[in-house]
Amino acid sequence: MKSCRASLAVAARRLSAAGDEEKKMAAGKASEPEEDSPRLSAQESDALARVDSSLFGYQRLHEDGASMKALLVKAVRCYESLILRAEGKVDPELFCQLGHFSLLLEEYPKALSAYQRYYSLQSDYWKNAAFLYGLGMVYFHYNAFQWAIKAFQEVLYIDPGFSRAKEIHLRLGLMFKVNTDYESSLKHFQLALIDSSHCTLSKAEIQFHIAHLYEIQKRYRTAKEAYESLLLTEALPVQVKAATLQQLGWMHHTVELLGDKANKDSYAIQCLQKSLEADPNSGQSWYFLGRCYSSIGKVQDAFISYRQSIDKSEASADTWCSIGVLYQQQNQPMDALQAYICAVQLDHSHAAAWMDLGTLYESCNQPQDAIKCYVNATRSKACSNTAALAARIKYLQACKPGASGSAQSLPAHVSPLDDDQSSPAKRKRTSSPAKSSSESWTNSTAPPATPNWYLSPQKLQLLEQLRANRASLKPVQMQMLDQLEAQLSAMHLHQQQMRQNSSGPVRPSLPNGPSGVPSLPAHAVPRGPVPRPSCIAHPLANGPLPPSPGSRSGPQPPAVGNNHTPGSRANGDVPYLHPNALPHRCRSPGDPWRSQNLNATQGLQKGPGSHWAGPNGDRTLSSSGSADGGSHNQVGHSSTTPSEPAVNHQSSSSSSSSSSLTATSGVPHGTGPTKESNGSTATQHHSPGSRSRPGSPAHDPKLGGKEIPAANSRLNHVHPGSTLTAPGSSTASSPASALSASSPSPVEPSASLNKPGSTVTVNGSGGGACSEDSRSPVKLEPLKLEPPELCAKAPHRPTLSSSTVSIYPTSADVLKACRNLGKNGVSSSRILLNKCPPPRLPPPPAPPLDKDKLNPPTPSIYLENKRDAFFPPLHQFCTNQSNPVTVIRGLAGALKLDLGLFSTKTLVEANPEHLVEVRTQLCQPADENWDSSGQKKQWRCEGTRSYTTIAKYAQYQASSFQESLREENEKKGQKELSDSEITSSETVSRSRKAPFKQVKFGTNIDVSDEKKWKLQLQELSKLPAFARVVSAGNLLSHVGHSILGMNTVQLFMKVPGSRTPGHQEHNNFCAVNINIGPGDCEWFAVPEPYWGVMSEFCEKNNINFLKGSWWPNLEDLYEANVPVYRFIQRPGDLVWLNTGTVHWVQAIGWCNNISWNVGPLSAYQYKLAVERYEWNKLQSVKSMVPMVHLSWNMARNIKVSDLKLFEMIKFCLLRTLKQCQAIKEALVAAGKETVWHRRGRDEPAHYCSICEVEVFNLLFVTSDSYARRSSVVHCQACARKGSGELEGFVVLEQHRMDDLMQVYDQFSLAPALHSSSS
């Protein structure tokens, strides 16, 4: 930031100095006005030198900053004028500062354009934290969350102590919440909460988001405690209080775990009433209160509450559906019909409304219309019981149509034709069913007024014409025909009811079901929408509420101010308003310096509901909650369904660009942002990474910029041909649509979309991450982001390896070099910042493989005797980089391993009560992954976690086997089978279309205790040294403490269908897996160079690659030219996974497996481990292997003869030695003393309790925890966030600097030795 401001001062002085010359030039041109050459005074230049993006949201230009605003406007004019006159010879810093000024003025298109120009001109842009922060804020404003996340992560990576780190954590928390990455969201909110600096949300608002995250994660008791604790806060803002009570009340109504029904409903009503006292205008709270009243039978109170909800937020499909249920319960079918039609008009995919409407038609003996409604319900992605509906449809089709039934059927989409009738919100309140007089609830027989949706004679004539020409109609005409038939059907039903009322008593009918025919059982079809309460619409102190982010892609319901989007049904999508669309071209009308090259901007397109605060400040929030029927609703209006509250999350548009408090709803796994919608138009914008080079089609000698045309179709941001990506390539106007792009679209060579954060390869900065990549001829140095079409032509820079970094001959020189580095010392994450940019995803290897090479044979070794197992080439073959995975067949027999020691029977006898982690999964074919309904393939691998014991799981394993035998015998009795035995996987495959059964997978069983598992662990010592759990050549044996599952043995107990989802091993270490039997396992493996492609696929499917649960779609991998090794592991086979191999496994039969990790003593293994260590740091993920701690232990214990490995370890020692010295000097300057705390034997490495980065040597622990001898460790950055002067912290020193210097000096390159037997 200092360098940025210094550059600004220089630039400002240049402007002042150039003023006279410009004035002379202007005087020589009579046609040029003098004011075209503005000048900045020295005082103004000094003031601007202190301005950058970090002031965004804190500089109130519209209130008390009028003078600053005027200065910024003048500075923008000066800079634009200078750029226009510079004829292409412009200092990149001018563009950066122009971006800052435009951002502060909230001229987002200008800011984005300027930042992109800076990005394209400045090769080491990543050093400029203020630039990355400003770029992230612009992306955040446009709801391009994918790019905003990357920009913000890089800021924290290069400068953890950035002045606006709290704001970054806050916005990362909001964006991850939108993306349903709840663990990451919770982590960033907690990081924001402990930071004592200011940000756009108050502490109470952040606490609310944290409590809401607990609720979304179904940690209801924790959420309840968090909500109730928040209510005890003094001076709690009214909006926060109202939202907290709303969430707490609705959670008690829907969650059975929180008590018995009577007490829960009483408490829920009490909370909702208090919420309405705090915020009487919350339509959502009124709706929830109505649901609660309806569930306990207080119909009149429920109706009043629903009517209040309509008054506050009229256009809510859920409210109209609930009103229809109440009318139907009161035997008022016409009023119910109108309400249901209102619901499906607002949301065509409202499954509950369609089901209720179908039930209504059945009650009126119109089975054909009912069938249409049920079919529409099954088409909804939110329908959770398609099987029951399908059975009902089949039954109705078999029945004869009723004599009095209407010949018309309700079409799939119901919406009126007249503009003035386009939504219930535009109708007169007097014609609304919700506004009927209260007498209608007390057995009133007066016929309702003629509704205004009756077809006129002209429309009836049009309907007949359309019917006559049905075969030749266009899609638009077909839709019109459906709409007219819908209204005609409703009109006939109404007329029939009117005739019945006029001729005598209404014929008997069930309140909620058909008359005379079997009905669906109560609660048989769970209500599609699970209400997701909205959170606070809290105007922030520094400006009006910003626009809402990320509407879901696809057609929207009528724009009536409702934020409920189609498809956001049961635990479904986050309901968002229309977002700000990214401009097709990143130029603003007031951007004269870009007019030389670019066309006029198409501007920002805001949807009709892009602001959730209405013109009068009223909130238009509504949650996609289900309509209520309680115990009365035959179609299953369950009032006990857990809620997934959803609230709008706002991006910045105000002067403060503050984010709103609304709790962004969680989309459950497998639904939501990944869905595709027809009719969505993705927009592109100019990428800052689209570097122009001489000779490129879009090269401009002055600006060097390039322009990306708008696309009318979705663009797959995982472009198979892309080898480099860069910021600015949001392919849609919302994060949801950007993430849900499903198919690649042809991109012009000069208009390739790039994404932020990708370069030639991952180049971490720590511990040798800068070393040469031996996997690819591409060197690690090319750090500048190039457009894909220029990659092959771009000249490579010299290789940046650890050997290019000066490694000081002595530790004394190291310490001398880092003297006087400043009061705050050097960043704990980046010591050699100028050498090590943030790591980035690697591109796929080039050229792409031919299709016939995408299923390569798996390298296999067959062992006949013990000598084969200990033959040195076996070790070399397994660790060869060209072999991602190796299967060693017959290992158990060759070594005479007693695998029976790991059999279920022996395990039960040894330790029956040992803990087992259980994952409940769906049993599916190994090469497919379907959602729970079996309707759609997906990447997300769904499952729930629980715990049991070995004895209990053994019983389950045995009963599962016996049940399978019974099923096989039954099938044999029903059908003559062939001689060939049907395998379990074939059985699974054949039953795919049937509902998937659940299986339980016993995983992560720790067998490290030598006292409990002595015989088992001794047996594994028979393995060759390279595959043993502990050996001198195993890096993990030098960590000095146990890392469960890595340098200890883990056991897995399986039944057919048990899945180990896709992943790479922790820190890219190798792995050993032995199948105990008796059944087989099927393996899938992808080489390490393709992990970037796999990560892109996970991101596309809205899954966290590092922490999420995913099962790849083989068709996607095939299309992306990703090779997949596929093989069967039989009992006694050992699978060796090489460094970084991506893999996933499914059990074919009943079997047990044992597994652990191994770290070969090689430069390749160390390099990839450090790269993943740095990537984890960028992604805020804990590294299971403490690489700094391991590197120092290696320097103490190992003689290294490999030059590359030696240089990488030495480089890591250098960095950490400098870091320790810098921190100590900063502590001395602050008057803080360290306390000697010698490291204990087998003491684990330490991690920050807040951000989970490794903390080496100097531990910042809270005074309270130190006094209790239960030290809670912090890193320096987190400690200073909590207290800038480190008050309340004790700094423990575990290693003397003299000792570290001695280790550093004595670590030297050993002479090369001949390879020996393993």
From TrEMBL:
It is an enzyme of class 1 (oxidoreductase). Its cofactor is L-ascorbate; Fe(2+). Residues 431-453, 494-504, 594-604, 619-643, 674-686 have a biased composition (Polar residues). TPR repeats lie at residues 92-125, 129-162, 317-350. One of its GO terms (cellular component) is MLL3/4 complex. Residues 651-660, 687-697, 720-763 have a biased composition (Low complexity). PROSITE patterns: JMJC, TPR. Keywords: Chromatin regulator, Dioxygenase, Iron, Metal-binding, Nucleus, Oxidoreductase, Phosphoprotein, TPR repeat, Zinc. GO terms for molecular function: chromatin DNA binding; histone H3K27me2/H3K27me3 demethylase activity; metal ion binding; RNA polymerase II cis-regulatory region sequence-specific DNA binding. Residues 13-45, 407-453, 492-777, 833-854, 964-989 are annotated as: Disordered. Its EC number is 1.14.11.68. It is found in: Nucleus. GO terms for biological process: heart development; regulation of gene expression. It catalyses: N(6),N(6),N(6)-trimethyl-L-lysyl(27)-[histone H3] + 2 2-oxoglutarate + 2 O2 = N(6)-methyl-L-lysyl(27)-[histone H3] + 2 formaldehyde + 2 succinate + 2 CO2. InterPro entries: Corepressor-Demethylase (IPR051630), JmjC_dom (IPR003347), KDM6_GATAL_sf (IPR046941), KDM6A_B-like_C-hel (IPR048562), KDM6A_B-like_GATAL (IPR048560), TPR-like_helical_dom_sf (IPR011990), TPR_rpt (IPR019734). Residues 1012-1175 form the JmjC domain. Transmembrane segments: none annotated. Residues 964-978 have a biased composition (Basic and acidic residues). Residues 836-848 have a biased composition (Pro residues). The keyword Transcription regulation does not apply. Belongs to the UTX family. PANTHER family: LYSINE-SPECIFIC DEMETHYLASE, LYSINE-SPECIFIC DEMETHYLASE 6A. This is [histone H3]-trimethyl-L-lysine(27) demethylase. The lineage of its organism: Eukaryota, Metazoa, Chordata, Craniata, Vertebrata.
